[in-house]
Specification:
By secondary structure, the chain is mainly α. It has 7 helices and 2 strands, in the order ααβααβααα. The radius of gyration is 24 Å and the shape is elongated.
Length: 171
């Protein structure tokens, strides 16, 4: 006899007792999934920072943000993408959100900014995970573009030798 059938016949069986093993297991599984997503979001933000740190010095420089976004813009819009507009957009962003003087910023500053952006886009951690996966893939593609002859420029030279196609752990 199911609890629903017993209750319908006037029995004392509860429909869904709070604290039952099934309820506790479901809550624990949900909490574990939430913890895993939160951890994954943290890992993706760190990976995104690593992908932007083109010269591997442990900080994000304004020029790194600009150069990587030049490549991403070229991938989206072609070789004739408006690089000056990209430069202005990301210089303004860097100085407004990361450092007003354009000085390099460490990971915690980047992390804080990214969570502000993510929370502005969607407060769901599951959605933030998907958004970050897209950002990471675009950054990987941008890095690869440094090695694509048709996308190279003379101003890439200081970075190209230091940018392996993908950093270890970002594959």
């Amino acid at each position: 006899c199911t609890p629903l059938a017993a209750a319908a016949r006037g029995g004392n069986a509860a429909l869904s007792p709070i604290g039952s093993p099934a309820t506790s297991a479901a809550a624990a599984a949900k909490e574990e999934r939430r913890r895993q997503i939160t951890l994954r979001v943290e890992q993706l933000v760190e990976e995104l920072f690593t992908l932007h740190d083109l010269n591997h010095n442990g900080v994000l420089e304004e020029v790194e943000l600009i150069k990587l976004n030049h490549k991403i813009a070229m991938l989206h819009y072609g070789k004739d993408a408006d690089k000056q507009a990209v430069t202005e957009k990301f210089r303004t962003l860097f100085r407004a959100e990361l450092d007003k003087d354009g000085q390099p910023v460490p990971y915690p500053k980047f992390r804080g900014y990214m969570f502000k952006v993510l929370d502005g886009l969607d407060r769901s951690k599951a959605a933030q995970e998907l958004i970050l996966e897209q950002f990471v893939e675009e950054a990987k593609s941008g890095r690869l573009a440094f090695h694509c002859h048709s996308f190279q420029s003379t101003t890439d030279e200081p970075f190209r030798a230091m940018i392996e196609p993908l950093p270890a752990g970002a594959r």
